[in-house]
Request: fold
Amino acid sequence: MKLIIHGGFFSESHTHDKTKSQKQAALKRIVHQGFQYLKNHTSIQTVAYVVQLLEDDPLFNAGTGSQIQADGRIRMSAALMDGSSLKMAGVVNIEHVKNPILVAEKLMSYEDKILGGTGAIEFARTHHFPFFDPQTKERKEEYDKKKDNKNHATTRTSTVGCVCIDKLGKLATATSTGGKGYERPGRISDSATVAGNYANAHCGVSLTGIGEDIVSLAMAAKIATRVSDGMTLAHAFEKSFLELKQIDGLAGAIGIDDKGNIQHQESHPTMVYASYDGILLDIF
Reply:
């Protein structure tokens, strides 16, 4: 049993040691909680649980603390995938829920597994997910500053994600995002697609970074396919990030293969992550 989590890229406007240490402390706490949960649950149950914890922490750009789009509204996306069944479910641009990943998890048992916009919101309300405003004071201040200064440059707060392998050797992934901030309403990120979140029997991968770059290279699915075709997890990551470099893309990724090997890599050294198997393996 192993799991690895990421908290996206820490913001370029908040790269001081205090913020980084806060995120590291949060990741350490959450990865420990996730492993304890994994002891008595499946991989797909665990990734949903862990990403819920990440969504609930306002330090990260998912759930509470999500970025605000150009029209002043928060729209979030999330997905999870079961590597053994190859079933994926997700929500795109959902509003006014606390945990998009739990709505995605609920969709796993339905025929229509990926819903967007009003359809996702209506599904959430039908299944008793209450109204919740994920906006925080910090995000509102960032939004107002961008609006007032006409400076719409986004910060690297990105996405959260989890990959795990359970005691039966089954892999699963989950990924959630609050968007890039001040984006055009209607934009679709990579997080609820197989480019940003993918698992099969051989490998599970979760991405963070610039969604357009990740989608252009179909990164999560491509890494998993390469592992399925016999490439080592490390080599699959290396080759995929070399391709990313060719388009000057920005992304970070975490993954686990069916042998329990763990891998992480980023195009810029600011992705925060932690891995655990009963002992804290790695943290940044």
Observations:
- The CA atoms of residues 81 and 88 lie 4 Å apart.
- Confidence is low (pLDDT under 50) at residues 12-16.
- The longest strand covers residues 2-9.
